[in-house]
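Researcher: I'm preparing a figure for a lab meeting and need a structural model of a single chain. I don't have an experimental structure, so a prediction will have to do for now. The sequence is pasted below. Please return the structure as tokens so I can convert it later.
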Amino acid sequence: MTETMTMPVSSPATVPPQAGSQAWLWASYTLAVREVIRFLRQRSRVMSAIGQPIIFWILFGAGLAGSFQTGGGQVNSGVSFQEYFLPGVAVLIVLFTSIFSSISVIQDRNEGFLQGVLVAPVPRASIVLGKVLGGTFLAMLQALLFILVAPLLHFVHLAPAMHVNMSPLAILGAVLFLTLISLGLCALGYLFAWKIDSIQGYHGVMSLILLPMWLISGAFFPGDQSVWLSWLMRLNPLTYGVAGLRQVMSVNPLGISNLPPFWLCLLVTTLFAVGCLLIDIWVTRRDQAIN
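Model: Understood. Here is the structure written out token by token.
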């Protein structure tokens, strides 16, 4: 009489419930750390993301100091151009870092890394969070370092004396707005990078959308002397992020006219960041395969 022995068969795709609930957190963390390590290993990205906006800030500040006008049409009415341009340069640093970090989506797709991540037993939302949060951290950190260091350039005669609010509450507010702006721009960059399969095409789209978006945000000029331009600025969500950052940093925000209320700046910036992130998750889940 023979006995038949049966061995239990376990499916390799089975994931313990506890491991499954934590896998997406670990996947997001791993992808975010990977973005930071990749950035630190590419020194050209560090120099271009920080160096170019600082050069713009110094050169434009020196060249336009005598012709800068605020709301009342008065030249240098209590606010220097470099003081006005300071939040705009911080957002420009965020913009450049967001563009460079989003390019990694296209590079990972071309190298086959993204396809390997997509077949992993983790939700696709974790992929979006990992890529976007890694870029958000890098963008926010670089912009914050610039804000802290920029007023010191006065001592080496590269910038005039500026009245910048450096209280702990103001720095906390700057971190909040820089994080929300970074999250929104990184999520927006991810959305375009997910749909575009070439780095050249991505740069073209970003130059056509993000740079004009920054220009009409009040970062470089007030724009309140043109009716149609002022309406474009009101419709631009980045305008409220720049205005909120300017209000927490400026000692005299009343010297700059037509700033939106602080609560509106915080609300619109938060909705923009969360909305772009949710769209990224929806688009990534909808696409069943990626070439």
